Amino acid sequence: HTAGACHHQTVRAIEPGCQPKLTVNSAAVLESRFELGSGIAVRVQLPARAQPCHPGQFFMLRCGATWTPYLRQPLFPSSIEGHYVTFWGSPARNDGLAWLATQPEGTHLDVLGPFGKGFSVHAQDRRLLLVAEAPWANPLLALIAPQLARQGGVGLLVEAATAADLLPAAL
User: Fold this and answer.
1) Half-sphere exposure (CA, 13 Å, Cβ side) for 170?
2) CA distance 148 to 150
3) CA 134, CA 144: separation in Å to the nearest integer?
4) Residue 164: which of 90, 95, 66 has the closest Cα?
5) Angle subtended at Cα 31 by Cα 73 and Cα 76, rounded to the nearest 5 degrees
6) CA–CA separation, 22 vs 156, rounded Å?
7) Running along the chain, 171 residues long, what does each successive block of 10 average in pLDDT?
8) Left (φ > 0), alpha (ψ -120 to 50) or beta: where does 155 sit?
9) Which residues are bridge partners to 43 per DSSP?
């Protein structure tokens, strides 16, 4: 290790005083929490340098203090508008969303991503049918707005154990 220089190798061994080269996005919570149906929605602004997010991709959120021993929590955006993403769901089923819902507006988050290949819909596809179980529908929801913007049609079929588990009409 030479003074002032970090030597990163393929193995990603971190030398003393060096930081790993990971894509960490510092994002600010714009609307810390608003109720939507039986869940909550949290809108987050990603930095301008962040990679574009596509429907079906996800982020890994560090919940709690910077060096918490807990693993990051995956969050799938239900809405993507440029550098703004909205996460929706039940805090009882998602520890990351439960923690995020308690944070005040302006909180800076330790977020990795987006990860995953995501979904692609061809521009000539006029109709889209989305089928999912209620707890796992979130990754599909981000497909709705782009399809409607292209004057396409969307059908959403969701299976839920109870009526309270169904997605809110406002989504």
Assistant:
1) 9
2) 5
3) 16
4) 90
5) 30
6) 36
7) 37 35 56 71 86 92 71 90 88 82 84 90 91 89 93 93 78 66
8) beta
9) 31, 86
